[in-house]
């Protein structure tokens, strides 16, 4: 799956806009490795070889002196010979250096070998990522009628709270998303200086300490955005149910993990790679700011990698560096004169690290320019050409000087700088930057952005991505790609009397202003569109505004003016601070990372750590021991053994009984519950809900899934008691009420107390669970008032109704409609009519009062156990009727109560959550609200006020019992009304016929036993009693 999701497309025709279709797909990673010592030695030997070849050619060059100029033909011949000699020497040099690079380049060398002249390397997103980027968004939802009362909520998890370029990008995006209607809650892995800024933007910031990472209820958010790899620990809680369905966008801007992945592969640490792959797979979209990063992380791709380009990091780095450094000072330090004109040559970002084919093409492209200006020395200064790529090794510089000498350039005209140096220093010294790449980039090159931010005029090929952001002769100068004459022509207007012309200064100024807010609009709209395609917007939430509403397209520089001024090199910015990557690495391997921030592919392994050979030897030893163990057991089975004495038998029996007792030993909570009148079952579905569950004698866990049950407690396995819950479809659409059905199924085997209660795990996550004081108040009141039909609840149905006016204006059925796409009344009425078989002309929607009192939600209530069984009997029949309305075998995913995919998954949950209110109100139960904080009691909807309003005849126990028996008789006779009949699967099936059949079965067994006893007695009288012989 992973290999099919990400591909590198190599376009042999030069990229977009060319004819032909000869694309090759390469599925290897692109590894950008620094030059090692071994490679440097090979480079030196290769360079010495070319020096020898050059001297031999010079000795033979005397033949040319015999020829005398005779017209223009000789001049043409010399020019052609010079160009050919330059190209051939470059090819020979490239072949030598590339071979040495591929000797250690791994998979990346294979990619480069398949990239030739005129080819382009492209990142091709997987199918899932393409759907997220190109999806239709909310167009279909905006065309339907919608009742929304609250804005969509998003959670933002920050890896750090520094005031840096990453914070600038996030603040800008979040402020614009707020304009579309989103509301944010900010979480942070650690505290930082930007906390006040985030609190001003989004309110209180919650810092997630290590022991509280799992104590956030992510289900209250429509989506989660995590920034940085450092947020991984917080993301770990999202990898368990019930949080796996919460949409997650993970922004990864560091490349430190990409630099470590080749090391893991070399060490054979497949488990460590799988760990990171599973973490990346949890995200609905992993967002990178550059197209090179998804290629570097390709081994972790499962088809969800998305690229949203941004430029703010490079602009921030350039402005920070300019605050503390000057061009004149840097030139003086590096030996350049004040009048020297420095031309910076930069190649493709895919080949920054070595002298590649791309750099060979650049040298050929710059041939006429070097020849014309490299030998020229104007008054007071000269032209200097600086090549920026690779590392600052002797071999790299020798390669450049070799080409310069062949072109007849003077010493010092051409110089090489590596990316392992201070790149900002090199860029700031330059007067002109020539982007001489043959690779067509997918996004604007980051170092070009940084150079423009320094105020350097740019000369670049006419690539579409460059023309997208820049205007020719306004922000830079374009030339036709792979055309040396066009480059020479584009370069001329920038020079005047050996200095930069006014035209060049104007272009530099315009380019600097352009980069200030470059890609801001694209970045903001891309995130907004990504959210529309990922986030599930529930029925009660507003839809965000249209992306076309965003008009301001600029970064929020005004909030960060005081922070710009700290110089940071390009390498430091890209690598980031060490943290979670090394923590995970040490957990899996115990590797100690080198402190060298440049060569981060180097690792030091302690001698005490086992090597791969040690593990192989250990595996062989374990295999031999296992073989000997099995062989000895087989031999013991075949050998005769003496009969054990009675003492040994008794000892083994006592040991077996002790082990059996330890397995079934009740925990402390179960022992404390003995004799108590109340037990509250906390319903949960998934390990992610464990931190929200309570401990003690009052509570007991109720797991809807067998595999996610807490092993160290006596939690009830709902799926074991009710096999229906093993079906994930029904477990999802019934939610908590499915757990109630499991408890009611043969309730005497699990609950023998007079009171029973339920509480969803979400109550603790939303801070509405019972406090210790409220628990004591509840226990005291049920012990004092043991008579009467009463329901205590502590989580009230409260929807933010500010959009519709006063909260009191929201009636019960209005709130139910809001939570169920406006179809609650209609669906409830149809289900109620189907349940009782009512004709169309009779009203079937039970009236609910508008008295301003509270209603129960989240299944957080306590009632007498007999009342609970009556409620379950009513709920089973209503659930069956509700399922009958959606009983479409051809479309099991349709749901009239849902507006999003997540709501369709839990189709009946929101209606069944409110069902207890309808049953309690119309069955005449007293409803009391208990404050979860102080335990104060307040009666809701008093009984005297219900007279003339309640439908007591439909909720009469006798009627419900007769309906239940009718359904049981039909199920017992296999007279199912449809193929998928839900009711028999939700609990016990009992009716009068079942009782009679069980009684008849017991009577038959009794008579059979009596008959066998008489036959045995008659046979003994007839034949007498014969004692068996001792040896018989």
Automatic annotation (TrEMBL):
The chain crosses the membrane at residues 73-93. It comes from the Eukaryota. InterPro entries: Glyco_trans_1 (IPR001296). Residues 629-656 form a coiled coil. It comes from Eruca vesicaria subsp. sativa (Garden rocket). Gene3D superfamilies: Glycogen Phosphorylase B. Residues 395-500 form the Glycosyl transferase family domain. Keywords: Coiled coil, Glycosyltransferase, Membrane, Transferase, Transmembrane, Transmembrane helix. It holds the Pfam family Glycos_transf_1. This is Glycosyl transferase family 1 domain-containing protein.
